[in-house]
């Protein structure tokens, strides 16, 4: 199965690049396209000072565009978006399928003094649930926010649901590229699955300095290797997922079988 990552800076209200790249992806027989976080909405630090009506307008515009693109080109598009309900912003990962739209409300948000999404967004702080999953061409996908990749309970749910591919839109900065690569390789290996991570590019300047979004969108494979990755410029990365590779990794390492045998007392 063929999937793709679109690595862009924030595009504001413009949709031209989305139309152009989706057409290219469709010609390459891509079935699923993943967008990085912060492409369809301003960076979080900018959101903090934006009127909620402006956030809603931009989000509604891009949601309409992505629904149309998914339906027109027969492609599933997954993107991180801000959803406004009753004048409150929620951070979501959204799946735009050709005939439906599904929302996963991110459960774990950054809560640091310099980057406190948990305080800004209205997402519920509650016991963790399994990430949203769906199937395309025999592959089971899960959607997860970038910060959620750090938490073990999320991966317990991944194991229980027999997920083949984890989709992770992110907005990483602060020269964290090497740490992200190691995290993705480790998670992909210990769960013998693919992890497709999309990061954005560009820069945000504040009084305290610049925040550089360095790209490096990655496909980690079930053997814990970086199978493909991008640089720090605008690019479309097209990758092929392989069921045989998934089966070989799971058979070779047997991590899940070891747990199942112990649960069954065998």
Describe the fold and architecture.
The chain is of the alpha/beta class. It has one domain: Carbon-nitrogen hydrolase (Nitrilase/N-carbamoyl-D-aminoacid amidohydrolase). The chain is 32% helix and 32% strand. The protein has eight helices and 16 strands. The strands form four sheets. The protein has a six-stranded mixed sheet with strand order 5-4-3-2-1-16, covered by helices on one side. Helix 1 (16-27) links the parallel strand 1 (2-7) and strand 2 (32-35). The two termini are 36 Å apart. The model has no long low-confidence stretch (mean pLDDT 95).
CATH architecture descriptor text:
4-Layer Sandwich
In the residues, how many domains can be counted? 1
> What string gives the helices and strands in order?
EHEHHEEEEEHEEHEHEEEEEEHH
Number of β-strand runs: 16
* Approximate helicity band: 25-40%
Structural class: alpha/beta
Classified by CATH, the class is: Alpha Beta
Specify the number of helices: 8
CATH homologous superfamily name?
A: Carbon-nitrogen hydrolase
Question: Could you give the distance between the termini?
Answer: 36 Å
- Spatial strand arrangement across the major sheet: 5-4-3-2-1-16
Rg, rounded, reads 18 Å
Kindly report the CATH topology: Nitrilase/N-carbamoyl-D-aminoacid amidohydrolase
Strand content: 25-35%
What characteristic shape results from the CA principal axes?
A: globular
Largest sheet: 6 strands, mixed
